[in-house]
Amino acid sequence: MGIFDRYQSTDDTIKKYLKQLWEYQEAEADLMVEIATLLYEDDAIDDAVGFLERSVRIYEELGLYEQEASILDLMGDVYLNMDENNTALKYYRKCHQICTAKDLPIIEDVFNKIQELEEVEQTSTKIGTETSTSSVDEDSYSEIFDEGFSDEMEKVDYENIGSKLDDIISLLDEYAIYGSYQKFDNPLAHIKEAIEMSRSIGDDKGEAGLILIMGDISLKKEETEKSLDYFQQALKKFRKIGDDKGEAISRLMVGTAYFLLGETEEGSSYLRESMEIIKFLHDDKMEKAAMALLKSIYR
Amino acid sequence: MIVRIASGIPGFDDFTSSDDDLGLDLGGIPENTATLIYGPQGVGKSIFAYAFAYHGLTQDEPCLYLTTDLEMGDLYQKMASIGLKLDEYSENEMFYVVDAALSDSGSEMEDSDLYQSTSVKNPTDILVKVSRGARMISNKGPRFRSVIDSLTTVLESNNPVLIVRVLKTYILRVKEAGGTALITYTEGSSNSSTEILIKSMVDNIIKLDHGKITIEAMKGMGRKDIPYQITEKGIVLDNSE
Question: Which residues lie across from A143 on neighbouring strands?
């Protein structure tokens, strides 16, 4: 035993700490699942899903695939219980991907759930074409898409499209508060500060909303490429947290930005995908606002 | 020596002073720290916060007040009902309110330098407005007080893990700006792991329960307790004259 022994053991100490950190993170994720279970029992579904999402990210980071897959499966079950079949399907598919790659035992169970849901969805689509309750039916927006974009890009009316986008973005849950930042002298600086804060506390929903507003402001300044970048970031965030409304709004924004950049096919694809989600959400206000936007883009 | 600021609660400062021969160690709340006031519902946590905020104002210490249960008008009324009238301090721009207690219909008041509306459902916005308030208020003098009344409502509306991070950042911002923070929280309104995390973030922990005030943790002193009463003038410790 010598006085330099502690230096020789630095690697061991780091390894020990890393192992401890790993264990803490795993324990944190396990705790989140327990909290989510209690919240779910208390009918606090959104909060429960939030905890499950966070636990999934930790398990993924730690490479604990079995846990990650079982939580994704569980999330699918949660959404299935809420009759949100599309979202449930999304989680089951993610789970199935991991099960396939890692040969996990729950693969068969998840596969059966996917099959059952796909059958239900196919049946309801057939019925839906006859008894759609949506205020905007698919035909009406498909017609708009079929009419095509304006060929004369110089006639793009930024002001008109901008006001339609304002109507849409104001439907975002976070807009009532964060939208007011636009009244400040230097709105971008305020919003950037808020984004930094949202990142520091892990407020994904707040961050996504703020980024979307950044994009809207950039678009109004006719900085279309920059705005597209913001809209894409917001879309990624909303998808990450499974916020369908946020995703639909972001897709409309992305599609519009592509259109303004002259990339009409790409734009059309995003707009169509957005309309599919909006139709699924049965949100009349959003449908009307989205239709108004489409009409201002297409002719 | 630990510098303490007067709490505004009759008897509390004597109760927390050490028996220093020179009489230098006055009691109160340790300056530039964060204090958690917790306990069951209806034990006077908010009243403690009112007295703390108000006493600071009388000592030329401005206050940043995040209210989550009472809208600003109701807060003024409630404080006035125990003799703590805020109008003068509001006029002197000493009392800065971040109002997260608004109903969905929103505020009738316009945001101003001294009043910012927010929502308990938007933790980022709360933090933005509190940080802005701390910056502004710290320019008014070397020390200020900051209150969250109560953390419970914010926790109930959000993912607790997120709010624990908000609390951490809030405490950091207030301390950096030279302030002394006080946070109220209703015991049992979150799960035990969240409560443990909250307690681990503050410097001082005071529990109010069944007519007994217990210092569970405080810089420079050990655990001790004393009976208290809620009177028409607020909280009064039984050692006060």
Answer: none
A36/B contact by beta carbon, under 8 A: no
Q: Is the pLDDT of residue A126 over 60?
A: no
CB-nearest to A201 from B106, B165, B193 is B165
**Contact assessment for residue B86 and residue B95, using Cβ atoms and an 8 Å cutoff:** yes
Locate all alpha helices (DSSP H) within chain B, ordered by sequence. Answer: 12-16, 45-58, 72-81, 87-91, 123-138, 151-156, 160-176, 192-201
∠ CA B134-B137-B142 to the nearest 5 degrees? 105
What is the complex's ipTM, to 2 decimals? Answer: 0.83
Residues of chain B contacting residue A202, judged by C-beta atoms under 8 Å apart = 161-162, 165
Which of residues A102, A129, A156 is at a domain's end? A129
Q: Which of A158, A178, A191, A189 is nearest to A259 (CA)?
A: A158
**Cβ of B166 under 8 Å from any chain A Cβ?**
yes
Q: Check which CATH number belongs to the domain holding A120 and give it.
A: 1.25.40.10
User: Is B107 touching A (CB cutoff 8 A)?
Assistant: no
Do residues A115 and A148 both lie within one domain? no
Distance from CA of B103 to the nearest CA of A (A): 13
Query: Cα separation of B86 and A18, whole Å?
Result: 53
A159 and A293 together in one domain: yes
Q: Give residue A38's pLDDT.
A: 83
Q: What is the pTM of this model?
A: 0.70
The tens digit of pLDDT for each residue in A25-55 reads 888 888 888 888 888 877 778 888 888 988 9
Q: Please check the confidence at residue A152 and state whether its pLDDT lies above 50.
A: no
Q: Which of these three, A78, A106, A129, is where a domain ends?
A: A129
Most confident range (mean pLDDT) of A14-23, A275-284, B206-215 is B206-215
> Are both A107 and A145 inside the same structural domain?
no
